[in-house]
Amino acid sequence: MLKYFFDNDLINYSDKEITDWREAIAESCQLLMGKKIIDQNYVDEIIRCVEEHGPYIVIVPEVAMPHSSEDSEGVFGTAISFTKMKQPIQFESEDEEKSAVLFFTLAAKNAEEHMENIQNLSELLMTEGLIERLVATKSIEDYQTVMQEFNL
Prior knowledge:
By secondary structure, the chain is an alpha/beta fold.
């Protein structure tokens, strides 16, 4: 799956000084917006869902999976993008468990593709040592090294 992000040009190493989680979500959506897979409506919907339901998108420490429901407006295709933030983004003050530096943003056109995306990403993230290695990357070149190391 690391190869999927690379081959589909869905990797972003953000150089922005972002501290607000809303801004981080918007940044993580840029690649999908640029490819016209989603539009601003979907970005706004993700932010609204986190405001309403809390930081459910932080699935494990250091990893966020911004997404909304599979029947969201503003989704025109199915894809997952990877964004590495410059520094950890706090979703809840003082709660280390609710901060993320790796953002895997999901967009899916239907329920089946949505569940498949979540399953594939979950399997990837269970790979021993992968999260730590991705957190340590600083560039696309570092990413390629990790991709070759893990052969994923």
